[in-house]
Structure formats: C-alpha cells, structure tokens
Amino acid sequence: MEVKGSVRPAAGEWWDALRWVLLTFTFLMALAIGGSFVSYERVVADGHPWLPRVHCKGCMFCGMTRSFCAMSSGRWQEAENWNRGGPLLYVGGWLWLAGGAVVFIRLAHKGR
C-alpha cells in the first residue's frame, strides 16, 4: 500500500544506496582484518588495544578478536578454541576483500 504523495526511489537511487552500504561493509571488514595483525601474545595477555576488556556471557562474538589474531599468526586450532565461527568469518572476510579488489580494478579499467 502506497501512501498518497510518496514517491518510490528509482532503481539508480537504490543501486547508489546499496553501493554505499557495500563500501561501508568492505571498509569495516578491512579494519577487522587489519586489526587482527596485532601480536597474538599481546592480545591474549593484555587484550586488543582497540577494544575494551569486556566479556559478555552468551555473546556469539566474544573471542572473535582473539580468534582473528590467532589466525593472522597462523594458529588455526587456537583460533577455533576462541570462537568456532572465527575461521569461517576470517576466510570469508579475506574472500570479500579479494572480491572488492577485483571489482575496484575492473571499475578502474572501465573508467579509462
């Protein structure tokens, strides 16, 4: 049901909005992957410098930072111990960034 006087956005406007959402997600994924290269030993001992030392019971993301840092250090078994979903999200993040790089390169060549 459409409200009288309302106008639906055109397809181009939807696409522009979606591109901004995808760009923001890509930036956040790059930030998460980049932050995982902090020394694993430091993160385990002192916590991650970007995050407060708060642990929430039942939070499905608790341990994710330590899991990402463990994977960036090549400690895949420890990463799974910190958070079982960590390895999947880590690999998915790298694939997302690789796909974003391919899209960026194609758009750059198309603009020439």
By DSSP, the count of extended strands is 0
What structural category arises from helix and sheet content? mainly alpha
Distance between the termini: 44 Å
- Largest sheet geometry: none
* Uncertain residue ranges: none
CA-atom Rg in angstroms: 19 Å
Shape: extended
Helix share bin: 55-70%
What is the N-to-C succession of helices and strands? HHHHH
Mean pLDDT: 86
Instruction: Tell me the number of helical segments per DSSP (H or I, 4 or more residues long).
Output: 5
Q: Strand content of the residues, in percent?
A: under 5%
Describe the model:
By secondary structure, the chain is mostly helical. It has five helices and no strands. Helix 3 runs antiparallel to helix 4.
Write a concise synopsis of the structure shown.
By secondary structure, the chain is an all-alpha fold. The protein is built from five helices and no strands. The mean pLDDT is 86.
Question: Helix and strand layout, with pairings?
Answer:
Elements: H1 11-35, H2 40-46, H3 64-72, H4 76-82, H5 86-110
Task: Quickly list its features.
65% helix, 112 residues, mainly alpha
